[in-house]
């Protein structure tokens, strides 16, 4: 039995996707994140043979997420840091009868659904699977038995999270498979990349994100994303924000 989890935080203006303000307003950034999450939920629903779960923050957000994803099992995020939260969520599933558990972020709305199917297929032979981001982090990690070191002993929020995870897997003598590289959306440059990608994709791909972006830029032409200077490029804390959903 497969568990497929997404991690998310209830969107709130001024607290959600703050690295997208500017070019977006705080309200637009929160709305856009919700659209990312809705497309990620739809992506998970298309994966056959997987139980959908949503690991959420903050503690009092259960009603919001139950309304947004009534067909998902809800699981509060528990832990003092990102690694602990990921480990607790995966270990919960693997201790609750699931034979494979995969957890992904909610900041990659155009992620191909086949990557998720590939993750479970990889776990038929590998001990773990990872989906690298091109910034050095990852958008997905999966296990078929608990491996706390892979999550708790990696220093998150660095450009070499994937590399360090692979090194720890080698130390633990765990076979780890790698999925194709993808990206998440935390900065204005990545938002520009997303808009360019959507313009080349079929209209049914990431429809919630597409609609949100069309609404934002139709109302606010001046909000067009700008290439950032080195001072505003992706910071080391954004990997954690990706998984906690508060960047």
How would you sum up this structure, described in words?
This protein is an alpha/beta fold and 247 residues long. The chain has one domain: Spore Coat Polysaccharide Biosynthesis Protein SpsA, Chain A, CATH 3.90.550.10. Helices cover 40% and strands 16% of the residues. The chain has 9 helices and 7 strands. The radius of gyration is 17 Å and the shape is globular. The two termini are 32 Å apart. 45% of the residues are buried.
Supply the key terms.
globular, 7-stranded mixed β-sheet, alpha/beta, 247 residues, Spore Coat Polysaccharide Biosynthesis Protein SpsA, Chain A
Write the layout of secondary structure elements.
Layout: E1 2-9, H1 26-45, E2 50-57, H2 62-68, E3 73-76, H3 82-94, E4 100-104, H4 113-122, E5 128-132, E6 138-143, H5 148-152, H6 161-171, E7 176-178, H7 188-200, H8 207-219, H9 238-244
Parallel strand pairs: 1-2, 1-4, 2-3, 5-7
Antiparallel strand pairs: 4-6, 5-6
Helix pairs in contact: 1-8
């Amino acid at each position: 039995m497969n568990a497929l989890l997404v991690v998310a935080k209830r969107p709130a203006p001024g607290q959600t996707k703050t690295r997208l303000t500017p070019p977006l307003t705080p309200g637009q950034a929160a709305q856009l994140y919700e659209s990312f999450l809705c497309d990620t939920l739809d992506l998970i629903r298309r994966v056959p043979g997987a139980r959908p779960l949503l690991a959420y923050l903050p503690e009092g957000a259960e009603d919001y997420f139950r309304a947004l994803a009534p067909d998902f099992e809800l699981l509060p995020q528990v832990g003092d840091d990102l690694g602990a939260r990921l480990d607790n969520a995966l270990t919960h599933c693997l201790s609750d009868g699931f034979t494979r558990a995969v957890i992904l972020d909610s900041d990659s709305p155009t992620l191909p659904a086949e990557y998720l199917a590939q993750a479970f297929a990889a776990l038929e032979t590998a001990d773990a699977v990872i989906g690298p981001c091109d910034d050095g982090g990852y958008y997905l990690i999966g296990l078929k038995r608990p491996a706390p070191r892979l999550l708790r002993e990696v220093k998150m929020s660095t450009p070499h999270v994937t590399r360090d995870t692979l090194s720890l897997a080698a130390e633990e003598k765990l076979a780890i498979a790698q999925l194709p590289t993808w990206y998440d959306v935390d900065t204005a440059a990545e938002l520009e990349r997303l808009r360019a990608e959507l313009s080349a994709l079929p209209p049914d791909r990431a429809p919630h994100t597409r609609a949100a972006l069309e609404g934002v830029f139709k109302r606010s032409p001046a909000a067009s994303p700008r290439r950032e200077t080195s001072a505003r490029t992706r910071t080391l804390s954004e990997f954690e924000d990706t998984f906690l959903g508060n960047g």
